[in-house]
Each structure stands twice: as structure tokens, then as C-alpha cells.
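Researcher: I'm preparing a figure for a lab meeting and need a structural model of a single chain. I don't have an experimental structure, so a prediction will have to do for now. The sequence is pasted below. Please return the structure as C-alpha cells so I can convert it later.
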Amino acid sequence: QVQLVESGGGLVQAGGSLRLSCVVSGRTFSAYAMGWFRQAPGKEREFVAAISRSGGSIYYADSVKGRFTISRDNAKNTVHLQMNSLKPEDTAVYYCAAKSVLYNNGVVTTRSAYDYWGQGTQVTVSS
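Model: Understood. Here is the structure written out cell by cell.
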């Protein structure tokens, strides 16, 4: 059984930064493409960022491009989301997700394609 545990959320002022982490256990981490999604109150869960198994391919939602950075450390079974220049509209519960893939450089941006999800971590950005 694969388990994902997020951490690093919190309350921050607009313009501030947070770094989210997601530790994956149970299977070979390097076999998974990883992604971050978020869900604000009353809204659907939306794609934020994705990274391939190798880390060589990365994709961002337009709303976070240039402000957020996704990275992974396969030796530590961890994926990170560095969030800079945060805005109130970034307020949401952030989820990491894992998808077993065959190819090293494939990224997965579709929510329904992911196999495993974490429990989420709250990010609140005050104005």
C-alpha cells in the first residue's frame, strides 16, 4: 500500500513563501510521476504542478508559473512544492498525488489519472 503524507502548510501573508513536502512510502518512489493539486472551498480540485519520474520533465498550471517550483528527491522519497510570491487566491488545501508510470519523462496533469493521494495540507494566504 502506498501512503503519501504532506506537510509544510500554514498561514502566511501575501507575498510570502511556503515549502510543501510530500513523503511517499510503501513502494519504489522512483516508479511514480508526482503531482500537486489544490482545492479551495466551494471549488473543484485543480492541477498545480507535475514532475516526471526522473525529474527531467516538469509542468505548471498557468496560475502558478514563475512563482511555484516542484522538485523531487528520489533518495528521500520526497516531492516538494516551493511556493513564492503567494497570493490570497492561492489559499486552498494542497494535495500531492502519485501515478505509476512506465516512462521516465512523462508528466501527468489529469486529476483522475492519479493512483494515490495524500490527506492534504492547508495553505492560507492573508491579504
